[in-house]
């Protein structure tokens, strides 16, 4: 019951956040679906509100209410994820059309329903080149920029560190705790490093610093905190419930979008980014993923990378 009350509070916070960002989700409480994938191709994806007459261009992560309609032209594609464990509907091609049905009848598990609402709420409030591609374009003369984890909490099983730098440069990487250095590795090539299995275990709830230093460059630093085992188990259970609530037949991309949304709502931005990066490796032309990645970069202060991701999303929407 305590977890359910907490998630209900998170949903209300999402609503307030969305309204603060310009009313992106004025009707989240009535959300019956969300556009999780959109590829205009040579055509268009358009939406019409229930009872309205005017069609307008659709956008990624657009929240839909019962009675709203989606249509496509030419070779355009849209995927609409329905709430209540009803799966997804694919709208595509000439004459493609779909009207969002009413919300699912009561009866599904309340926790799973609340989790879905929390993720949909976060995503609807969200206004890349993948980081790997960006890494290859940066000059070796620039100091590294820590990408993730970056000033936030992480799940204990996802301790992989990434930074923006050169694949040819050899870096010194340190993890420092309150009592001093925990582990140090020199001559690390590339821009990705996994916390060694033989290194000392990191204590939950303790703030550590990741320090990355290139030759002749100032050290770059970001903090992170590992969540405790009980919280990690609770997050894993929530993700499993969310998967169940999404229902069968949901694509890997749409599933990744919802999972990333829930992780981000829990302030696990590092883990949310990992989900998006993996999804982008399989579906690089999905603007929703680039938009979501841009939002995550914005929240971690990486404004230049956020702008690149938003630009890529816009480019894909106009192709």
Describe the structure.
The chain has helices spanning 2-20, 110-124, 131-135, 229-246, 252-265, 269-282, 287-299, 303-318, and strands at residues 31-39, 45-48, 56-57, 63-65, 69-72, 77-82, 88-92, 96-99, 145-148, 152-154, 160-164, 170-177, 180-189, 192-194, 207-213, 220-226. It is an alpha+beta fold. The chain has a five-stranded mixed beta sheet, with helices on one face. The protein has a four-stranded antiparallel beta sheet with strand order 4-1-6-7. Strands 3-2-5-8 form a four-stranded antiparallel beta sheet, with no helix packed on it. A hairpin with a 6-residue loop joins strand 15 (207-213) and strand 16 (220-226). Helix 6 runs antiparallel to helix 7. The longest helix has 19 residues, at 2-20. It is globular, with a radius of gyration of 21 Å. 42% of the residues are buried. Residues 1-29 and 127-140 have low confidence and may be disordered.
